[in-house]
Write a structure and sequence with these properties.
about 200 residues; Rossmann fold; about 40% helix; about 15% strand; binds adenosine-5'-triphosphate; binds magnesium ion
Length: about 200
């Protein structure tokens, strides 16, 4: 059975933290493929000023093009409704990969928010989760939280570590609006895409 990784995110913009996370997990868990899924309308960021899904999709495509194991899925950005991961995974299972074993890849911060996600009980039965520690996250607390989720929802959440990159999209948006460099924080193609399209110049972080 194929093992498929799913990497959800707003990707506003995508950066090396996302790419290292996905690639390290792909290699560690022997995944056949990782699908990057830019969120259409992210439920947790509705009140924030988010770049258009077209820009986020293109940046994700540019950033992943050099990795033969990476694909970008339009499943969420083509949906006009709010992007709930549980719906995305249901669709993925039914239409695209009926017989595949799915692994949803997240940074540790997402694990803390997991219980606020739509139909979390259902979500945790649909696929495995792989959570990687992220700079600033207390690993002991993370393991406690995962223990709690396993007990409550019978979830399969695997914790792993990847080389730590203290990078976030929030920080990148802030850097651009302050005229600071983002070189070597995002792939060069993404850097040029951001400048060409004048993204994040008036950003409120
Ligand atoms: P923002 O600052 O806008 O929230 P972000 O950098 O956190 O952006 P998201 O698109 O919110 O990026 O994250 C998508 C996924 O990638 C989440 O599971 C998040 O935990 C993970 N992630 C993001 N940056 C890193 C990083 N530097 N190291 C490990 N995981 C990361
Ligand atoms: Mg985030």
């Amino acid at each position: 059975m194929k093992k498929i990784g799913l990497m959800g995110g707003t990707f506003d913009p995508i950066h090396y933290g996302h790419l290292v996370l996905a690639e390290q997990i792909r290699a560690q868990f022997n995944l056949d493929m990782v699908y990057f899924i830019p969120a259409g309308i992210p439920p947790h960021k509705q009140d924030k000023n988010i770049s258009s899904s077209k820009h986020r999709y293109f940046m994700t495509l540019l950033a992943t093009i050099t990795n033969p194991y990476f694909e970008v899925s339009k499943i969420e950005i083509e949906d006009k409704n709010i992007s709930y991961t549980v719906n995305t995974i249901e669709k993925f299972k039914e239409i695209i990969h009926k017989d595949a074993e799915l692994y949803f890849i997240t940074g540790a911060d997402a694990i803390y928010e997991l219980e606020t996600w739509n139909r979390v009980g259902k979500l945790l039965t649909l696929c495995n989760f792989i959570a990687a520690s992220r700079p600033g996250i207390d690993e002991k607390k993370l393991r406690e939280k995962i223990g709690e989720l396993k007990e409550k929802y019978d979830a399969n959440i695997i914790v792993t570590t990847v080389p730590a990159l203290a990078i976030s999209s929030t920080d990148i948006r802030e850097r651009i609006s302050l005229g600071k460099s983002i070189k070597y924080i995002v792939p060069e193609s993404v850097e040029y895409y951001i400048y060409k399209n004048k993204l994040y110049i008036d950003n409120q972080f």
